[in-house]
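SAMPLE LOG
Freezer: B-3
Tube label: C17
Construct: single chain, 327 aa
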Amino acid sequence: SLLNARTLPLIKNVYTGEDIAILQTAFAEEQLVFAVMQTYYGASTAQAAVKLMQENLATAMRSLDFTEIRRKNGVALENERIRAALAVLQARNGLDQAKAGSDLALSSLAILIGRESADFIVEETPENPWAGIEAAFPDGSRLERRVDMKLVDQMSLLAERGVTDIWMKFVPTIGAALNYSGSSNTGFAGRNTQWRAMLTLNWSIFEGGMRFAELDIARSKVRESEYNKQAALLAARHEVQSAISGIKTAQIDLATAVEMSSLAQENLTLVEKQYKHGVAQQTVMLDAQTQVQSARIQTIQGNLRLALAQVSLAKAMGLVSKGAFGD
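STRUCTURE (predicted):
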């Protein structure tokens, strides 16, 4: 064909399909990077938990030493030594559980990053490239960088071209043909060869209403794509607002946990001195140790929740990429 009006939208669709394939690859990479970051922060938190459990075990053993000294001096009962020994056993169990959790987190991270073994460690306090993102974009209005929104736009473009393609069926098609032949018989023309060129015009005027039915289907697909686009936009906005709300909640919890940790540690220091001099009871000291451990665990968890909420906001705004987090 020399001229077929349907060729133009079909050619454009080829390039759009290539763009969609690139965007789908970018979307898959974004999801993988986000999963790696979540697991990385989780592994870092698990390592911090191991360190905390080690310190908790050291505290429990120090309390056991205090109890032994008091018992030898005749100011502590045998059941106090037993309670202190139980506290040490519980602390060791907590340490073992924390180590198992850390090993599992590192193994999961190794799988995600394609490493055969988990014989590595992560940073204790990994840098968060999106710390404070909620202050830079308080309304979370930057949604145009989201890969999924770009994909929806491309799908809408394909649907609109579907309508154009149906309209192009009403346009006649111009074709050309060239024929060359040879024969031993010269005929009346006195030549053994001859050629002919033909120009054709094909125009389907009536197809029983088929094209109008196809137009209705194509237009319904356009409406569907617009609905999908609006639904995706609403979902993206909800994801952003949820992430912002998560950041605010995590910040409040973290500030409370930090203050509680400071007060609990101060209280433990005082109680240990009082217990060592026979002023405080052992149960008071054990309660103080539990309060310190609980407050520090809440601090670790608060840091993790805040980091994950900030990363979630960055993802919701289309800012997560391999380059942003490093290699």
